[in-house]
Amino acid sequence: MLLGIDLGTSMTKAAAFDLDGTCLAVSSRKPTLRHLGKGRIEQDFEDVVRLVSEVVREVVADAGRVPEAIGITGQSDGLWLLDENARPVRPAISWLDNRGSPYLQDWMDSGVYEEVFRRNGNAIFPGSHAPFMAALAQEDPGALTRAATASYLKDGILQRLTGARVTDASDASLPFLDTRTRDYDPEILELLGLSDCARLLAPVMPAPGQAFPLSAEGARLTGLPEGVPVHAGPFDIVACAVGAGVDQVGDGLVIIGTTLACEVLVDRVDTGGEPVGMTLCMPQEGRWMRALPATVGTASLDWILDLVGAECTQVEALLAQSRPGANGVTALPYFSATGERAPFADVRARGQLCGLNTGTSKGDMVMAICESVAYAARHCVEAAGLSGRLSVSGGGANSATWSQMIADVLQCPLAIAPKPEVGARGACLAAADAIGIDCDRAAWTKAEGVIEPRAELRDHYQSGFAHYLETVEAARRLWHSPEKERLGTASHPPLVSA
């Protein structure tokens, strides 16, 4: 048995698989996000440690076996400041937090943002390490002084379970890594004014990573025997690609999660073009994931559901009340307080609902948001350079209507990634590679089916996508108009207009 742990933003999960890839048991718990107001969102590392203990014990009991190895994946970014014993020195700053936005805007205005991208193919966004470090250097410098590591969540859990202080190249890719050499680039730290923070960066594991034995403390937390190999990496959007079988250059994956993560496997680092997105090191040398993780995923759907007083279990019924085109209602789904990061970067990006009238139904508004996310997926996938097979995963993919809509908008077949827990599945495969367990990858990553696009909707959604792009360009000019600058658009709530 292999055990995968997935430390998501909205759920902490563990899943057990036999060596043929069959899922034996799954357990999950919901972590607590502390919303402090003014866009500030934090988490308690010890709360996540407790949840990991619970889900691992529950899965192992249900499966009735001791795992041969444990693979960990999870949310990247955010800032988890830990001491030398992997204890938090302050609450973790979630990647959803927007306190880094002013610092990112300064780097964008000064050209530093683009200089960093031209070095490693990664566009800094407000929820990544660099803006948070810059913010804490101003508002809580003592936390940086007390910390031994500016960790990622899964690396902090690895350290608690094994004592190992390391990180995976996929996490470290953004913002400080030279993605070609897989080592930190001191020039990037200097450009950002963060050279003093170099001591906080954990060593990067060489490909394909390394497993570390479960320590006595890790054994107490998990109920497992000491010595079980534990591997942390790659982080969730890369692990999902591994679990979905994205293994040929040009193949891609759309993850309809809190983030709409659109990614394509590439064989070179491209630092040209518009400075957006991520270039993430894969477990294999010479391979990278060109990722465009937009902030417009299920979080946008959750926002509209809350607005109309509906639950996620009602999505299919609400969509059935409308039709393609949402009876004239259109949307831009940029409702994150941190703006947008793919396929363009703009901390002032804000959402819109247009074409409302007294006859507009709740279903029309939900349909418009879902269609706008589908358009965003096409926008990102095309920018990432998709040329091969495309798969789909994530919680949003559980909606058959929404998944079909995305296939129709892209006019591309969507292979349904294997369920359950594609991220944990990828983490297990990475762990197996690290310790030399030979798994049948074709069996582990076999698609559950294929969603074919409906040809009769090609022209409709082609026109809808063209309108979407026109609206995006018009809105980008408005976000930066002198009047919006004066009003401080970046801190205002999303715009809803008729």
TrEMBL record:
Pfam families the UniProt entry points to: FGGY_C, FGGY_N
Ranges where the Carbohydrate kinase FGGY C-terminal domain occurs: 301-432
Domain Carbohydrate kinase FGGY N-terminal: 1-243
Transmembrane segments: none
Source species, domain of life: Bacteria
Family as reported in the entry's similarity comment: Belongs to the FGGY kinase family.
Protein name: Xylulokinase/erythritol kinase
Species annotation: Paracoccus isoporae
